[in-house]
Structure formats: C-alpha cells, structure tokens
Design goal:
alpha/beta, Arylsulfatase, C-terminal domain, 2 domains, eight-stranded mixed β-sheet, six-stranded mixed β-sheet, 26% helix, globular
Length: 490
C-alpha cells in the first residue's frame, strides 16, 4: 500500500490531546489517533534533528558509530533507494533545513524532492538589512544568527498560507493531487520482476515523506493562534529561547513562550487535518497508510531548563508521539511495546511490499499494529547523543535506557547517573540513584550489553564501562553560568 510519513519537529507528546493534554487544541491529531494504533512507548534513538532522520532513512542506530550531525554517507543503504529499486516512487517535501542545506543530501534516492526554504539559519534572504528582535538578545539562542536570519527570511509573508507548516502541508496536498492515479492498485505481486532504480511503476505504491520543522523554534504563529492561549499579552516575545537554565525570563514571558509553542502545535494540527482531508477527497484512505511521528521534545522550564542541547534525555525530551493509521486495522487502540525510529524504515518497506535489507537494526511494526508482539521484541529503548569523532568534545555525552520499571540517565560527560521509577514517577522528580546503586549498576550493565549487541566500536564501549557515581540531585549537567556548551550544535 501507499505510505505517507509525517514528521513534526520538536513536537512534545504531552501537548497532544490523544496523549492526555487538556489545554491545547489538537482535534485533527486526536481524530487521527482515534483511527490509528497509538504507540505509548516510542522513544528517541539517535539525537537530535539530523541523527533522527539519519536513523529513519537507514533503519540503523547510528549513534553507535556516527558523529550524527553529518551529511548522509554514501555507503549507507537508504529507504528511498530500496523503494526505487522495487519500482516504488518516493517524494520528499520538507521545510526542515538541516537535512538538505550545505550538501547534507538526505534527499538521496527520492524520485523527486521539494525544499520549502527559509527556516532558521537558511541563507535565503539578505534584506531587510535592519531587523528588530522581539525581545532582549540575551534571552534568545544565537540572536544575531538564528533569529536575525529567520526574521529576514519571513519578512515578506502576509497571511497564514505563507507560514512554513501551511506551505509544507500545502505542497504535500498539491503533490497528491498532481499525482492522482498513482498507487491505486496497491502492492506489487510477490513474483513481479524487479525494476531498475528510478523506473517507477505508477501502478505500484508511492511513499510521500512530509517533514515540517514546526513546532521547532522560532515560535511565531499567526496571532489568532497565540490568542487562544495567552490573549492580551503585551510584553517581550521570546520566540527562540536561549538553551539555558531557567531564570532568564519573567514568569509572564515564560507563560507567553509556552503559548507561542502551543499556537505552533495547533497550526500544525490544522494543516495536518487539511492533508488528511485531501487523502480522503482523492479516494486514497483505503490504500494509504499514514504514520505521524515527532523527533524529540523540548524543555519548557522542566528540570530547571529551557531548550535541548546536551541535557539528559528526560521523558519531556525523549518520550515522543507516534500514530499509525493502517487500512484494514481497527483504530483507537494503544500499544505499549518499545519502538524507536529505526523501526520506521522496515515498517514502510513492509507496507509497500518491499523486503527490508539486512542492514536495518529495526523491525517492522506491522505485527504490533495487528495485535501480535513477537517473542523476540526488544524489552527496552536506548537513546543517545552520537559517539562519532565530530562530537568528541562533548563525549561521552548523554544516554538514556528505558525499561518497563526504570529510566536510567547516564551522564557520561559529567560522570554521574540519575534513576527514576518509570511507573510511579513519570515526570521524573525523585532521583533514586543515591538510594539504589544496585539498580544503577544493573542497568549500566544492561546498557553496555545493548551497545555491544549493536556492534558499537570497542573504543566507544570502553569509554562507558565505569559505572558512574549517582548524582546527589538533578541539574549537575548544566554548564558554567547555566549555559549548555553544546547548544549551538542543536
């Protein structure tokens, strides 16, 4: 069958109604959840934006061997190429800039691709020369690069349709309409002759990859979305908060920053709804699977922090949404198996009727979707900054192991550990590491065994063999003056 994969960057799981939120309007995502299998234990793999896409498009735990934030290496077997060799057309539509700009090349293998330019530091426009920042520069992350360039890029927009999420979803709707007739006959016959790469058969399924950077900062949705959550505000708008310890904004500014983010979430929801309606209008619902995921979350003051950077992978950052609407599979169900981004490539290939290559670390999720958990399915999830050479200045970095009972945060960069009861302390307020060094030691051994099973280079495993000391209290990972030394990289 056809597959549409939608990635929403920096979308927090707890900001969606289908995952328990009660104050942000997400009716279309909630409706999609009612028609889908919702995965309750979906966790980040390799962190952050670029490494996540690297994992999705290769099906591999790339943090074990790669620097992560790198161009797509030529030796990797990638999803779009495997599809193309089976005659399956693929289209990439994206406004997330990092995977395409500066020669990163994550479009490799796609039949066609479209980049909606202008997000963040994309060198799109040089005017206007003078840009007025929306708040004091010290409250912003890289104000004279990230924010200033972004404000130049969006200076000519006028209405909601000019914003990035509407542009990206609109381009996806246009592609579906322009390609009406593709993929209407479903998967190829198992004995169909293979086709040379790029010789797509219009009767075979299509794969549409839609990647919206929103609600990643800068947070500047149209005012009518902001007024849903903080009407009448007249203060400074911290649209791209510094990645730093809490305290650099007033309470009113923090409340407004959360409202700006919530407005972005609702805007993404609205335009996702339009895309799903277009799928129905074109008669594709019964032949098209829709997968909706995020890549990671964002600290809004939790654990004393704003942003991302090298902060430990608490659930607010690490535990993310994943909905799978599959034709013929009843919706409104939930699944609590541990799943990760490496599972997306084999799942998409399975849906398209194409065998997965043996390079994949992940597995197809279709048995889980259909209600069967294989006996060999993983019993934990590991998330990490990448181990490769380009990130050695901040290694060993942050790694998190999640089991049904525990969340173990390994903070190799400062040599401490945090431990939380996954069932009784879901917001991770009570660090049990000082009280339970036995559990820390056990989970650390489990983490090392996981790394070894993934064929992690021995040098990277060896650097993590010493069991870290329990952190006496959270927050010891914050750098000098509350700044994160790795923030500019993410």
């Amino acid at each position: 069958m056809n597959v549409i994969l939608v990635i929403s960057d920096t979308l927090r799981r707890d900001h969606l109604g289908c995952y328990g939120n009660s104050w942000i309007s997400t009716p279309n995502i909630d409706r999609l959840a009612a028609e889908s299998v919702a995965f309750d234990q979906y966790y980040v793999g390799s962190y952050a934006t670029v490494p996540v896409r690297y994992e999705i498009l290769t099906g591999r735990h790339v943090f074990t061997y790669s620097a992560g934030w790198v161009p797509l290496p030529p030796n990797e077997v990638v999803l779009a190429q495997v599809l193309g060799q089976a005659g399956v057309a693929s289209m990439m539509i994206v406004d997330t800039p990092h995977i395409l700009k500066d020669g990163f090349g994550y479009d490799r293998g796609f039949s066609a691709w479209r980049w909606l330019r202008g997000q963040e530091t994309d060198r799109l426009r040089m005017a206007p020369l003078q840009v007025t920042l929306p708040c004091a520069p010290e409250k912003l992350r890289n104000p004279h690069t990230n924010t200033t360039q972004y404000l130049r890029n969006v200076a000519t927009r006028r209405g909601e349709a000019d914003y990035f999420a509407p542009q990206t979803f609109g381009a996806a709707m246009d592609w579906l309409e322009e390609n009406y007739g593709r993929g209407r006959k479903g998967a190829p016959s198992p004995d169909a002759a293979p086709l040379p790469e790029r010789a797509e058969d219009p009767n075979r399924p299509f794969f549409l990859y839609v990647d919206t950077f929103d609600p990643h900062e800068p947070w500047d949705p149209p005012q009518h979305y902001v007024d849903l959550y903080d009407p009448g505000y007249r203060g400074e708008a911290v649209i791209y908060p510094a990645y730093a310890a809490s305290g650099f904004m007033t309470e009113a500014e923090e409340r407004h920053a959360r409202a700006l983010y919530a407005g972005e979430v609702t805007m993404v929801d609205r335009w996702l709804g339009k895309l799903l309606q277009r799928v129905d209008d074109l008669g594709l619902r019964e032949t098209t699977a829709v997968l909706f995921v995020a890549d990671h979350g964002f600290f809004h003051g939790e654990h004393g922090w704003w942003g991302k950077g090298r902060a430990p992978f608490y659930d607010v950052l690490n535990h993310i949404p994943f909905l799978a609407r599959i034709p013929g599979v009843p919706g409104g169900r939930r699944n609590d198996a541990f799943v990760q981004p490496v599972d997306l490539m084999p799942t998409i290939l399975d849906l398209a009727g194409v065998p997965a290559p043996d390079t994949c670390h992940g597995s197809s999720l279709l048995p889980l979707v259909r209600g069967t958990t294989p006996a060999s399915w993983r019993t934990d999830a590991v998330s990490s900054t990448c181990f490769g050479p380009a990130t050695q200045h901040r290694q060993p970095g942050s790694t998190t192991l999640v089991t049904p009972e525990w969340t173990y945060l390994y903070l190799g960069g400062v040599g401490v550990a945090e431990l939380y009861d996954a069932r009784k302390d879901p917001t991770q307020r009570h660090n049990l590491a000082p009280e339970r060094p036995d559990v820390v030691q056990c989970l650390h051994g489990q983490l090392l065994a996981k790394l070894e099973a993934l064929n992690t280079p021995e040098a990277h495993v060896e650097a993590r063999r010493a069991v870290p000391q329990p952190a006496p209290q959270p927050g010891l990972w914050i750098g000098p003056q509350g700044k994160d030394p790795s923030a500019q990289l993410l």
